[in-house]
């Protein structure tokens, strides 16, 4: 509207019932804009409505509607109230003028009309209107610009309470501008974000204007990188407040981090490969050497940068001794990858010669222009050196430089033959690093490889020179102990290994605390066959893992028997799925206040071919290790959802809790599979609750939170099972969408006799109440436990006091009788 008025010709309306006065005023202002006139109040109001004039020259005394009433009507309409009204009258009493001003008039002309005065007054008010509208437009433009700037602009008083922000809708910190007014900066930004600002407040109050980068956490948990500037406002030598500007640099920062990570990966890669790598700019001046290139040329990177390629890497014909052209020059000239000439020698800085070969390639930018080149080369000085290298590669592990499986088998066979003649023993130690896979998956394979290298060094340093440490693959190592007098020597080595591997591993400034599980078998006591001896050591290592890890075990006959039994159990479990031997039992959850069954927990049971129930403690761990837990978990979920629907159809809204293993939860298609089961069974989603242990959430925070949010979108409830026994941080209770905490039965069992367990339960109850979470106490077996739990504030119980796990029909009787 303001821009339209600024661009248009002013409109002046003269209202007077005397034509002579109209003519005088018309002649006075006709060149100042479009001039209209009316001779009565009704006509004047109609013209005001149609033409929206800038100024109305309004006679006070007119027949019908007088000037005061016309002015009052104009000012009463919001879309007309900006019209300037100049009253015209023959009265010179002060009262008339005051009344005119009180009604909104901006000026007063006295009759008889003085044309020059009228013109001057109208011109002045037109210019004033123009300036006013220009100022309003500038203010509006400034307001729009500030509001839509991709930055957070705010002003805070001396007490750091907000007086202004451009964040009208709370996009930055979830607090709209209207609600933010008067809030303390800490309450707006959050304690963690405020701390990042607060450390600079003192400098601002000293008159400094710091600019610094910040890392913020939004309410969603997402990271926001910002660049902040702070200015202290001083009025009359007194500090009034602080202006804070935060610019979102997340995209730039993410790009910088990605670029840095990529450069670091490239640097590490180039520094780790076995060939020499040298790079130049477009003029052939050196820009980079990897460690191998430094070693082969005798030049350090700092010394070589800027030197011509011929100075750092002088090449000669091995036969004639004549200097040859560096392949980088050929790559520039031919604009392609070129190979090094045959019989080429590199003269090292100290004068030594190496025969070298490989290739050079030009580097192009995004426009295809050559910006430099890289030459990759290696030493081929002696055929013998190459043969040794090939032999080494065939017999040693490339990552750790330890003997590989082939060389280890050869040495083991020799040691066993010697032991047969000497009557001594050969020890075979097999070990792997506990939980190594999670380190590899959580951090990176580069970190994992570095840990394996460090582990190889430690193992080698703890054994005798005659012993052989070998890497069999992955994180599995074997140690061959020839010429042993007895078991005591093997025990001593195993103890040293455990001690060495318990020391912290440091990789790129990060600390990793690891342990190993060790299995030991002896020749000829355990076997006279190398493969069987290895298998026995593997069985002993498995026993060490089952026994709690970070320990060693010797092979014995009972270990082998258990190993065979375990394989048989796994085979029978697989057959049980095909034969439909797995059953779903339910244990009731009771609201003790109303003595009603409000939910059940689904529990898997296995009735084998002999019609015997197999203990879950026996087959669930095997299912977890072998991956059978995935089809087994799907079977339980599908059947539980079907039963929940059946209860609902009979009029009982029973919430079924279903345990989800870590293996299931971390599957990429887990949420899709759950959604499919809900759809196929027709169960109401709010009648299904998934129980997840704390350890699952600790493995990968970001993935776990995303999975839980997607499950919540399906309408499911989320419960934390065995609360208080796992993940040590309580932060996830705020970050993750959790509905229910289940108090572990271990606390309930001894709560009447152990004050510590009682105190823990009290803390869990208070925590749940403050966070608005539902509580379920597991393992309630006696009335005294139930009463104590109810007194503490927990009203939903689960345990043998109310029901044992039972099939669908039996638990249905309990539900509908209750």
Automatic annotation (TrEMBL):
Give the superkingdom in one word: Bacteria
Q: Which Pfam families match?
A: EAL, GGDEF, PAS, PAS_4, Response_reg
- The organism named in the record is Chitinimonas prasina
Q: Where is the EAL domain?
A: 566-818
Span of domain GGDEF: 424-557
What are the transmembrane regions? none
Assigned keywords, A-Z:
Phosphoprotein
User: What InterPro entries is this protein classified in?
Assistant: Biofilm_reg_signaling, CheY-like_superfamily, EAL_dom, EAL_sf, GGDEF_dom, Nucleotide_cyclase, PAC, PAS
Q: Does the keyword tRNA processing apply?
A: no
Domain Response regulatory: where? Answer: 11-126
Q: Does the keyword Phosphoprotein apply?
A: yes
Q: Where is the PAC domain?
A: 340-392
Q: Please state what the protein is called.
A: EAL domain-containing protein
User: 4-aspartylphosphate is carried by which residues?
Assistant: 59
Annotated coiled-coil positions are none
Cite the PAS domain residue spans from the record.
262-314
